Amino acid sequence: MITVDNSLTEYREASGLSQRALAEHVAVTRQTINAVEGNRYDPSVELVFKLAAFFEVPVEDLFHPDVELERTVSEIGD
Amino acid sequence: MSGFLERPSRIRRVVAGLTVVGAVALAGFTVLERPLVGVAVFGLAITGVMVALSRTERPVFDERDEQISREAAEWTLSLLGISSMLVFPTLTFAWGVDKFEWQPWSTAIAMFVAVLYLIYGAFLVVLRSQR
After folding, report:
1. Which of A47, B44, B49, B70 could form a disulfide with A43 if both were Cys (CB 3.0 to 4.6 A apart)?
2. CB A16 within 8 A of CB A25
3. B63 in contact with A at a CB cutoff of 8 Å?
4. pLDDT value for B34
5. How many CB atoms are located within 10 Å of the residue B22 CB?
6. pLDDT at position A1, please?
7. Fold of A4-77
């Protein structure tokens, strides 16, 4: 099971936005932003790219796969 | 009223409440042999749902709600499928050894489950052909 952590809370708070305000910018509900920040919901690819575009950062700065996946990918690379 | 319905969370609650009221009224008045009243209340409830959904520009339901709905549908189908695999062969066996008699209600449930899975199978074929 791959889990994906994220830095959404940090980026949102650094931008001085509430969950509601961010939700309106990316056209989802406040509950969805709350669930993503709490790692209770994995957002769609579309929402991931919307959030990255909104904060003007690469996707991987916002969302980080767990250590297990990174290890697997590096093993495949070897 | 418009102030109350500005928040999507409140609209969601209103939509859920009206849908339940409409469905219960339709079923209840039908049982009470007042079908026209049931249909009228159901129609009013659904109109209320439409009005509530039109009160805000903000998304009321989004991708998370869709995912939750998909998961609930998956669980429902799985539960129905597993219970059907146990119940219907058992009933058919019992019928074969004269321990059970198919009644209109049990036949109706069996037919409903069969039609449900036929529809599910048809959607599987169509969606698979598109991807």
Report:
1. A47
2. no
3. yes
4. 95
5. 21
6. 65
7. 434 Repressor (Amino-terminal Domain) (1.10.260)
